[in-house]
């Protein structure tokens, strides 16, 4: 099975990611992914919401006495006034990864909330960077007074670097050295792949196989050389009752599979061929 880039013809930002471009509008890319789940996503409404929040923030940010005070105004507006917060249920519900649903419900994953914070902040002249840290996606601000982090999952709390490392130790169990190495800006592909992996895990846990398959197609489009992604697409094609598509993928995977997986893939290939013959 070869993936046709034309299937994403309406997803201009995702096509940029497939071409390894970096000039990606991450809000648009996230909404394009959300459209897989909800074909009626209203892009304009989401952008208007972001613009309206920025309009509310301009005064408080302009009158802030200190950079950290300006950063705290983001949390006061987005979390305090508009209820945008992290919630445990977001980790087991696809809506926590869908930007328009996060805006509607106020509940999201750290990565979704971070994208909203970054978009609103840039409208008011605050350049936040996305940080794909282990255990928690956060945003980073580099200013004349040093480096600070915002945790959108916890009400937009402003953290020093030491406080951020302590938080990430608690959420991930990683060592301080591992965490410090991760505290750099994430590129657009890394961000979108993390969104997709979150969705994939949620759909698989809930046995929503067609939705998981759609998500996996996007992952393979971004990582076409990855054996593990193509293997997962083959297995999800079987789960989603697509044996014809699974056969090509399984045949391809069998050629490069590690020894420990060859028997399992061979069995899946036999099942897929049997299903296809029965259907025909």
From TrEMBL:
Protein SirB1 N-terminal domain location is 52-197
Q: Name one Pfam family in it.
A: Transglut_core2
- Give the InterPro entries listed for this entry: SirB1_N
Kindly give the PANTHER family that the UniProt entry links to this protein.
F-BOX ONLY PROTEIN 21 (PTHR31350:SF21), SI:DKEY-261L7.2 (PTHR31350)
Q: Which family does it belong to?
A: Belongs to the UPF0162 family.
Name of the featured protein: Protein SirB1 N-terminal domain-containing protein
* Organism this protein belongs to: Stratiformator vulcanicus
């Amino acid at each position: 099975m070869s993936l046709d880039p034309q299937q994403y013809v309406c997803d201009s930002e995702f096509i940029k990611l497939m071409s390894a471009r970096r000039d990606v509008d991450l809000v648009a890319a996230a909404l394009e992914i959300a459209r897989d789940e909800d074909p009626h996503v209203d892009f304009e409404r989401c952008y208007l919401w972001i613009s309206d929040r920025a309009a509310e923030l301009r005064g408080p940010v302009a009158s802030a006495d200190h950079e950290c005070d300006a950063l705290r105004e983001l949390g006061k507006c987005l979390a305090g006034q508009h209820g945008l917060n992290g919630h445990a249920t977001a980790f087991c519900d696809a809506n926590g990864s869908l930007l328009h649903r996060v805006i509607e419900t106020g509940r999201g994953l750290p990565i979704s909330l971070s994208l909203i914070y970054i978009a609103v902040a840039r409208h008011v002249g605050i350049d936040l960077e996305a940080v794909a840290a282990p255990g928690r996606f956060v945003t980073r601000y580099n200013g004349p007074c040093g480096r600070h982090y915002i945790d959108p999952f916890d009400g937009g709390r402003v953290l020093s670097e030491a406080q951020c490392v302590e938080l990430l130790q608690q959420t991930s169990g990683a060592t301080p050295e591992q965490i410090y190495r991760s505290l750099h800006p994430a590129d657009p592909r890394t961000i979108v792949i993390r969104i997709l992996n979150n969705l994939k895990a949620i759909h698989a846990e809930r046995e929503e196989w067609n939705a998981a398959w759609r998500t996996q197609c996007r992952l393979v489009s971004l990582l076409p050389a990855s054996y593990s992604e193509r293997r997962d697409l083959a297995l999800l094609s079987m789960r989603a009752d697509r044996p014809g598509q699974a056969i090509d993928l399984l045949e391809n995977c069998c050629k490069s599979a590690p020894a420990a997986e060859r028997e399992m893939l061979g069995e899946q290939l036999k099942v897929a061929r049997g299903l296809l013959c029965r259907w025909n």
